[in-house]
Amino acid sequence: MAGSYPSVDVSAAMVTQPVAAGDWLVVAPVLITMIGGALCLMTRKNTDAQPKLGMIFLSLLVFANVGLLARVLDKGVITMVMGGWLPPFGIAFTVDALGATLSLIASIVAFTAGLYGAISVDHTGRRYGFYPFLLLLLTGVSGAFLTGDIFNLYVWFEVLLISSYGLLVLGNDRAQLDGAVKYGILNLVGTNLFLIGTGLIYGVFGTLNMADIAMKVSELGSPATGTLAVIAALYLLAFAMKAAAFPVNFWLPASYHTPNIVVSAVFAGLLTKVGVYSLIRIFMVIMPESREYMADVISLLAIATMLTGAIGALAQTELRRLLGYLVIMGIGSMLAGLAVGTNLAISGAIFYAVHSIIVMTALYMAVGIVALLTGTYSLREAGGIYGANPAFAFVFLILAFAVSGLPPFSGFWPKVMLVDASFQDGRGWLGAAILLSGFLTTIAMGRAWIYAFWRGGPEGTPDGQALALPAAQQGVFSAALWLPLGILTAMVIYFGLQPEWMFELTARGASGVVEPSGYIRSVFGDQ
Amino acid sequence: MRTIIFRTIAPYLAALMVLFSIFVLLRGHNEPGGGFIGGLIAASSLAIYGIACGVASVRRAIVFHPMAISGFGLFMGAAAGLLGLFYKQPFMTSQWWPIYLFGVEIKLSTPLIFDIGVYLVVVGAIGSIALALEERESD
Description:
The complex is a heterodimer.
Chain A: H1 28-42, H2 50-75, E1 78-81, E2 92-95, H3 97-120, H4 123-127, H5 130-146, H6 150-168, H7 174-205, H8 210-216, H9 226-243, H10 251-255, H11 261-286, H12 288-293, H13 295-315, H14 319-340, H15 343-374, H16 385-388, H17 390-404, H18 412-424, H19 428-454, H20 471-474, H21 479-497, H22 500-514, H23 517-524
Antiparallel strand pairs in A: 1-2
Chain B: H1 4-27, H2 35-53, H3 55-62, H4 66-82, E1 96-101, E2 104-109, H5 110-138
Antiparallel strand pairs in B: 1-2
């Protein structure tokens, strides 16, 4: 094999055309975070340099994702096969507008989390590896958004899970280990179901390439019978667990309030959305008939998820747990889009995913600042922030409006699209559930704002009185915490006021999965 | 486990195991073996040395923290895939630079770099776990 190949025609099995350097953008997000994570891991004893090194790679990641999205919008779906082996044998990275959009938003959120973590994660946390784990988590998340191979998707899930375990137990205290065990076991079960389903797919179709399976899946006959029904049910359960959909959502409120607040913020923003993304990818591109067959089930799951999320949020007095339930509520809304499955509905689900990634991360960050100012996460004990810092109270109110889906912020448009699509499809109950869950969320967030911000002090403070906040905590709220929160809040406002750009982007993402011929052509060429 | 026989033999055994692990790593390209299994053998040699002579002396002997070794392995693995960029080939396409030394062909290549990366990741990760467990026992 020395340099030249023996006299066989390798072009039947391998890529022989030169690959444009621009196509390397497809793997760039994975490579940048992996190399960055490795370098941060090697230097993790140098706790002063960690944030700088981490932020360099996180900003590179954002640039790479901007470039990737621009290239996808320009040239359509891009595929790169690892090692030059042609699909279905080589592992393909196939990036469409959906994957590139989510990857970009995820990297922006990770960038802000890196900024926030520079303040909120202490030197011990850095030595335990906050930045290496954050970067490697992004390796998993970006890999999952970009890959075109279903077993490879499993591998990226493992990468992000392992990194998330590390982040979850960053401080090693009892509550964190308790949360990590619940999180870990449930996720392991989900991952195993995913692996079993993938094994079945390989046994039936003899291929793991998503585009290849999509072409072969219709040969297997009706989605109601036999193996295909089993595979679809396994995948639905596995990714519902990952996404924290009803009735397998209980791990999320049990674990998301335990880690450092910036870790919660990243988890709330990114992890569950990878599950939703996988559901959309698998049930729209690979098994569209199974989705139609199970549409009523998914619709019921969506309604139950939205309502348990919203009602759970109403019942909480701990701010982080309250937000955990709101994450679940958002997952239900995205599932509603999947249940309807039209172009408009999937656009709405993608828009909602983008909105939810941004707004949930921002809310957790804001709640971290609430705890800095008042020293507590409890709604009974917090209070008086409006008097101390009206600007921050205003920012929190914006985020509360956005998460409830009120105009003029980013949560409004996806809800409009989802409700519209549900009614068009004759699923009035689904649309009603979206509206009701938005209403309940408004109450839950309004309650949080009234107690923690408007009330003068802890529970029992009479109206019209404002207690001074503990002076020691005032200085901690440094300008550096404004920056990440400000970036995210600005995006929330921008997407609310100027949604046209997002409409166009999500419409392209949706049409790419509703009619996946472009995706398949990108992998196998024109046949 | 501080018996005199074990303590006398452990350094030699550990050295031999590291040597053997490198042999397994290098033969792994076309025959059974490779970075993963080689790394496991090397990590067990660290564990044996730690049981016999104490974890502190292992940490002194390997100079770097095991997780840093692991990080370097990950870096090598990722970097090995990058070289295709300069040849206008996809990520992870293998590059070969055969050299002739004393009439024997030695195939230097990116798969070799990748395999050494895997070796270091496994040594670092498993070694780190083994040393941490042994440290707890001696407290």
